[in-house]
Amino acid sequence: MNAEIITIGDEILIGQTVDTNSAWMANKLNLIGIDIIRITSISDKKEEIFKALDNAKQLADIVLITGGLGPTDDDITKKALAEYFNTKLVQNKEVLNHVEQFVIKRKAFMNERNIRQADVPETCKVVQNKIGTAPGMWFEQDNCIFISMPGVPFEMKEMMNNSILPELTKKKSDIHIIHKVILTQGWPESKLAEFLEDWEAALPEAISLAYLPSPGLIKLRLTAKGKDQSYLEEIISEQVQKLEKLIPDLICGFDSEKIEEVLGKLLIKYNQTLSVAESCTGGNIAHLITSIPGSSEYFSGGVVTYSNKSKENILSVNKSKIDHYGAVSKEVVEEMAEGVRNLFHTDFAIATSGIAGPSGGTEEKPVGTTWIAVSNGKRVFSKKFVFGDHRGRNIQSASLTALNMLQKLILGKEM
Length: 415
What we know:
This protein is α/β, with parallel strands linked by helices. 42% of the residues lie in helices and 25% in strands. The model has no long low-confidence stretch (mean pLDDT 94).
């Protein structure tokens, strides 16, 4: 079976609201073997809704719609759907009772707009909204399922998880879709693709490969599709094992894992601590580390020593080395790593110093030049990188590279 997702709302089209609903729904549907053939965003206009539904049912078995179900006059989805399916709005007593209880619990008063939330198209099957007032609506026409849900993400997710996905699972075909994502760090996409060319050419027919690059990280997504789920899982596993032998020092995680999450698990496993000294990354490494729940178990702290003076005063970096080699150098970044490790008395340390851009570069040290060091107290490892000329990408690339360097140090992998 395949599906189309339609999001309704002018706020999406003008960039005021980011459509996260579609990505979440697409992922959930794919996990139960439903292909997404198209994602469409449209305005709050009846004719646009009609046109989108006409187009969707030509190609899709399932059409998922979010948005436009609120109590205000600009929320027209419900009225448009009633007209599209040639029916009328009627008050649903069960929904009305739920809305009344919902309003009372919040110590508010029912008004006409609240009451209108209980009006639904007469021919639809109501999907209860347990955590909001706008019900979902399920229609079936012309061998196609249409499901309309609120645009509020947590309301939509509750409906999908507890009502809609279980029903769609019963109706889906016997085709299974399995994804496996391998996170790699260290090589650009072109080099990685060239190295894996023979492996990719030998992939089983049931498996497809996609390269998903982002600053500092390249994801390899393996997708297997077929009727025999056990076989698909087996051949996916075989290909992952081959990759682990081909590029062992590049793999830094799997599926939805993040490098900072994998690193945190390693530090907890070995009962070790970490501190960071950041210059060009401006605290981004510390942010990534502390974005993981429980990071206080292993992360002692960090400093952003952006100026040369702060490197000297806080991290005890030798002024003569800064004067002779420059702040962006092997000598300085290694002293930064040792300085912060001693400052926080940690087992490991990371340090970064670079030219994030867009200005400040020289012929010898162009924009993007970055030195990264990691220390384990016995030895300091450092490496020079030239990431590019975009400040945001440089900061993200340097941050992820630094985390991956520490992961390699802990695991004894080649830098």
